[in-house]
Write a structure and sequence with these properties.
Largest sheet: 6 strands, mixed
Low-confidence stretches: none
Number of strands: 19
Strand content: 15-25%
Mean pLDDT: 93
Strand order of the largest sheet: 3-2-1-4-14-15
Helix content: 25-40%
Structural class: alpha+beta
Number of helices: 17
Distance between the termini: 87 Å
Shape: globular
Length: about 500
């Protein structure tokens, strides 16, 4: 054999060797991955032959599967449309699933190890038992009100969020993000149609796919003063302690003065802490923050839940919607010491302080619940296909205890004064004690201010029944007052729904 033929022969042998090695790699190591891939047509056909379980809230199903005549037997549909989109997530054919549809996929699809008895039974009967059912903590009444009030807010805001929780358990009573979207086109069996719908939502500059209640962080403005007040109460300050105030305050090292929202707010040189909270005195809290120091404020914020990177809302401690970490940002100078200018601005919820609406609701809930912060959750129960077998029931548990009972009582009293005779009057609920804190946060040099409200409602016996946070992005003048009004409406609806507690 001449040299050219030998070289060709060697090349062919090497190619066959590589092909053989690749086949063995696929069969030995990649088989399970390919077999279970969402893009494997046979896997999809098999998955859609089994009816997916419902996701329900308040006795009503908001994610159901309907039989079709196509190759994929069942079509996932969402009767609640945009109103429940950010609560449920969605389950598409070829796109990535999200939310509760993703975190509870195995149980809903019937492939969970918990449901193996059903699958074994199907081997003998030839049936395809449906997947399990997921029951949520959502109050239908509170969700309806939250969605409608955010959508039709009086400031004409198109972006915002609202979340309500039960302070005693951490159960989520309402969760709305605006703008929202209709998840039904994303679940279409026409994958081109689903991809087009997803791409259109992705390109929308308002970000309808964003879960603003859990995943977006913005400067919280004066709602952060509750954290600063908590730090003060733990460092020798009482509700009646006089703190420096005044019409204007210029921190050391800064030429930019901090002023109050109106000339009528704490023009005196000193005001009691309770009055500073009620009036939302910027100059008072800026000076208080500088006095307390960065370490005290950042540590108290951390104790309330800031800087937590691993929180999720679904089953208790077992996945669900990811939650963005709220941050306090830097309050130090280049040498590591306190930067008075940064500290003053941070103490009124500006500078680099960023917070999710969920974190705001947790702060209010902690105050209402005597200083105990419960772990938030959205999945109340997992029921089998027969709807009688209980595979999981949430057992509420404490997440952390940011403040003592006495500090919580002081904060509660001050927040009640905000609603009774301060900036949060719009949140009042007849027959209930309501406390809260409004916040107006600068969003940029050429944009309108964000409007915030965090608050809670107590029944006649002083028991907490609901805590809420409402955010209206770039709401402008009156944004925090409108957020307070919406917050009150949501809590009123949660109170009226006995199934939410």
């Amino acid at each position: 054999m001449n040299a050219p033929l030998r070289r060709v022969g060697v090349v062919v042998i090497v190619l066959f060797g590589l092909l053989f090695a690749n086949l063995n790699w696929i069969q030995a190591y990649k088989a399970d991955e390919y077999r279970n891939s969402d893009y494997n047509g046979r896997v999809q056909v098999a998955e859609y032959k089994r009816k997916r379980g419902n996701i329900e809230a308040g006795g009503t199903a908001f994610a159901v599967s309907k039989e079709t005549s196509g190759e994929l037997t069942y079509l996932r549909t969402y009767p609640g449309g945009a109103q429940y989109a950010h609560v449920l997530g969605y389950k598409p054919v070829n796109l990535a699933d999200r939310g509760i549809e993703k975190s509870e996929n195995d149980f809903l699809a019937g492939t969970s190890d918990q449901l193996i008895a059903n699958r074994v039974k199907d081997l003998f009967t030839g049936d395809q038992t449906a997947g399990g059912n997921v029951l949520l903590t959502i109050s239908k009444r509170a969700q309806d009100v939250a969605f409608k009030q955010l959508r039709d807010n009086r400031n004409g805001v198109t972006k915002g969020a609202a979340i309500a929780i039960d302070p005693r358990t951490g159960a989520v009573q309402a969760l709305v993000s605006m703008p929202s979207f209709d998840p039904n086109p994303l679940a279409s069996h026409d994958t081109d149609e689903a991809a087009a719908a997803f791409n259109e939502l992705e390109r929308n500059p308002d970000g309808p796919l964003k879960n603003r209640a859990l995943g977006e962080v913005l400067p919280p403005g004066s709602t952060f003063k509750i954290v600063v007040a908590a730090a003060a109460l733990e460092n020798g300050v009482t509700q009646e302690t006089q703190i420096p105030a005044g019409a204007s305050y210029t921190p050391p090292t800064s030429g930019t003065p901090i002023r109050n929202a109106a000339q009528s707010i704490c023009p005196e040189s000193q005001v009691p802490l309770k009055e500073a909270v009620r009036e939302s005195c910027n100059t008072g809290f800026a000076q208080l923050g500088v006095r307390l120091g960065a370490d005290a404020i950042k540590e108290k914020a951390r104790q309330f839940g800031f800087e937590q990177d691993d929180l999720t809302v679904g089953r208790l401690g077992e996945g669900g919607h990811p939650v963005a970490a709220s941050r306090t940002g830097s309050m130090e100078n280049a040498d590591g010491g306190d930067d008075p200018a940064a500290l003053a601005q941070s103490s009124i919820g500006q500078r680099d302080v960023r917070m999710t609406p969920l974190q705001g609701a947790l702060i209010a809930a902690t105050v209402a619940n005597g200083g105990s912060q419960m772990r938030p959750y959205l999945v109340r129960q997992l029921l089998g296909p027969d709807r009688t077998t209980d595979y999981y029931t949430a057992r509420p548990r404490e997440l952390r205890k940011p403040v003592s009972g006495q500090v919580a009582a002081d904060l509660r009293e001050m927040m009640v004064s905000v609603v009774e005779d301060g900036t949060g009057r719009n949140a009042r609920i007849s027959g209930y004690t309501v406390g809260g804190k409004t916040g107006t946060a600068q969003s940029g040099p050429n944009t309108r201010d964000h409007g915030w409200f965090i608050g809670f409602a107590l029944d006649k016996d002083g028991n907490p029944v609901s805590a809420v946070c409402v955010l209206l992005e770039e709401a402008g003048d009156g944004g925090s007052a409108e957020a307070a009004r919406i917050g009150g409406q949501i809590m009123r609806a949660a109170i009226a729904d006995p199934g939410s507690r």
